[in-house]
Predict the structure of Carbamoyl phosphate synthase small chain.
Amino acid sequence: MRQLVLEDGTVFAGEGFGSDRESIGEVVFNTGMTGYQEVISDPSYCGQLVTFTYPLVGNYGINRDDFETVNPAILGVIVKEHCEHPSNFRSEETLDAFLKAKNIPGISGIDTRKLTKIIRQHGTMKAMLTTTDRSLEETLKILESTPLQRDQVKQVSTVKPYVVPGRGKRIVLMDFGMKHGILREFTKRHCHVTVVPYHTSAEEIERLKPDGVMLSNGPGDPKDVPEAIQTIRQLITRMPVFGICLGHQLIALACGGDTSKMKFGHRGANQPVKDPGTGRTYMTSQNHGYAVDRHSLEQTNLTVTQFSLNDESVEGLNHNHHPVFSVQYHPESSPGPEDTAHLFDEFLTRIKNDQTTLKEDASCLSVQI
């Protein structure tokens, strides 16, 4: 037996699977019907216990192709039912075996609908996955005295730069907790990608002579990485920049905007986003607990380009003077709809247009001289 204990004293008793270790983190929920392997391996879930609202998880097993990172940073998996005997031609092991190998605890057999309603009503909160041996009073004392993690980006970012070679545009990808799906989109387009740690300075990035800079997704509060905000503030005026999820929030902060924690966030593969410029609505994959404050952008050089149809939160930004833009959702999906994968092509188009402008300016300068 295993228990999930919320900081408000609510207890859910169920069956344990995966690792036997205890775990304390922020409990959140994901509304996707499929894609549990990508969710579990998404670095943006670092420090969190993830509740799957779909009642059956693990039915198509774990395969070699759908990982978003090598070493998952998720702290726990919460499901109504986990499948012990998956059936799929790509399946190589069970969810239980995978979680055991990665030392990730899980709990099944609980009312995930009730848990989700609690989170929606009261917001995300601390929780503990534990055995039934400890008293509730003792568990709550441990929960109260244990702070949530604040260094998630440091935990999941690459330690050293590395290169994914290509013959196309040269992209520097700042890794705040990058999903492999972002790399896949760039390699599809034959880009030469240099992945660098989250604290890489603007000067170090410029020495790499990139055509553009990609700011990846990542976990936690964007204000916990002030060094990245300073770097982005310098890069914005020097080269094209594209931000996704945490990268989107960091662009807002670098330009003078503000961010705040959401009540329970957006996590799922079915989030509708409206682009008022084109009138189109996109279904998007999302995973974030913080959002850009719309009113904080009024005195900045950023324009809101897209918004959520669920709560009207900011989903897209564009800089008024530089080739810089961002989205709160995941255009690389993994899992989720691929409605917005064209944004990677838009980024490369902006790079091309910026280079053309620079050449024209240089040509005009040489004529004047």
Observations:
- The first helix runs from residue 36 to 40.
- The radius of gyration is 21 Å.
- Residues 58 and 95 are 5 Å apart (CA to CA).
- DSSP finds ten helices and 19 strands in the chain.
